[in-house]
Design goal:
- The structure is a single chain.
- With 325 residues, this protein is α/β, with parallel strands linked by helices.
- It has one domain: 4-Layer Sandwich (Metallo-beta-lactamase, Chain A), CATH 3.60.15.10.
- The protein is built from 6 helices and 19 strands.
- Strands 1-7-6-5-4-3-2-17-18-19 form a 10-stranded mixed sheet, with helices on one face. Strands 9-8-11-12-14-15-16 form a 7-stranded mixed sheet, covered by helices on one side.
- Strand 11 and strand 12 form a beta hairpin.
- The longest helix has 13 residues.
- It is globular, with a radius of gyration of 18 Å.
- The termini are far apart.
């Protein structure tokens, strides 16, 4: 079983053949699960998780729709952040509609690899990732900052928002082993912490912020309650990959919206339990009804670091300029 080489991928410049092409991020509606498609300007593709199993192959169909939008016919890398069913459950259906080149994960837990996933990577390449590893996508820096209950060793700057944030009783489960990544394209930074538990998130962000700041932040655990330590990430835009009744907790929504510098929070679903006070404006929500049509959010990033978020339900978009940092 191979390991991703621990070599820092440095973006030294963009090939003139694809310098004008954007980085595209597709946040796919798996109704409280997780599936994000990353397509580099070079055309290289990374799928982070596969959504739920069942539902007539619903989530795989939605992933294929996003891939078609991106012009992707093959997934170069599939990164499994967790072996929970809402992250890995759709693997069988995905492999029926999209071939995968390399399967990446944090290594088998006590229960081993789920059978459908193991059967899939037995036919392709399989690598285990660890904190500090990078995924070699041309034109991007993709760095693993947490995996298998550990975080990257390199210390970052101090996080001024850690004071008074307590650790909770230790919860050692599959979520605590989640893979977290930082994706960089020029000055643009995207942070996805997967389903990291409260304590694992604190270990990553306090007292030193080992993640750095982000232009776009994918809310941890689908918008479950999080601490003000995430304010150190200083996201300009947050994406909430919640379902109508999964994730999207009111306390998490309010915590993210209180983060210094936040401009907008976009959601995959209206959180039915919250009411308008703890939901984004309708224009920024991909699915308003409990039985949504699977609309997704698309983030397109230019080489100068500016980016646009598109809601495919209503075709509403909003552009954000390059970060000042």
């Amino acid at each position: 079983m191979g390991r991703v080489p621990r070599v820092l991928f440095v973006l030294a410049g963009l090939s003139p053949l694809w310098a004008a092409d954007p980085l595209n991020l597709y946040f796919i509606d798996t109704e409280g699960g997780h599936a994000t498609l990353v397509v580099a300007p070079s055309g290289a593709s990374l799928l982070i998780d596969t959504g739920h199993e069942g539902y007539g192959g619903r989530d795989a169909t939605r992933i294929r729709t996003a891939a078609k939008d991106a012009g992707v016919k093959k997934i170069d890398y599939l990164l499994v952040t967790s072996f929970q069913s809402d992250h890995i459950g759709g693997i069988k259906n995905v492999l029926e509609v999209l071939p995968v080149g390399t399967f990446l994960d944090q290594g088998a837990g006590p229960g081993g690899y789920p059978e459908p996933y193991q059967a899939g990577f037995a036919k392709g390449k399989h690598q285990v990732v660890a904190p500090g590893d990078t995924i070699p996508m041309k034109g991007l820096s993709v760095t693993v900052v947490a995996a298998a209950g550990r975080e990257v060793a390199a210390a970052g700057g101090p996080n001024a928002h850690c004071d008074g944030v307590p650790m909770q009783p230790e919860d050692i489960d599959e979520d605590s082993r989640s893979v977290a990544v930082v994706i960089e394209f020029g000055k643009f930074r995207f942070v996805s912490l997967g389903d990291l538990t409260w304590n694992r998130e604190l270990s990553l962000l306090c007292p030193q912020n080992k993640v750095g700041q982000a232009d776009v932040y994918l809310s941890t655990r689908h918008g479950a309650e999080s601490s003000k330590a995430i304010w150190g990430i200083a996201p300009r835009v947050a994406i909430l990959n919640n379902g109508p009744r999964t994730g999207g907790e009111a306390a998490a929504f309010k915590n993210v919206m209180a983060s210094p510098g936040i401009e907008d929070l976009w959601q995959l679903h209206f959180a039915m339990a919250n009411g308008a006070a703890a939901n984004a404006p309708d224009a920024l929500i991909a699915n308003l009804q409990e039985a949504g049509d699977g609309s997704h959010l698309k983030v397109s990033v230019a080489a100068d670091g500016s980016f646009t978020v598109l809601n495919t339900r209503n075709k509403y978009s909003r552009k954000y300029g390059p970060a000042a940092r």
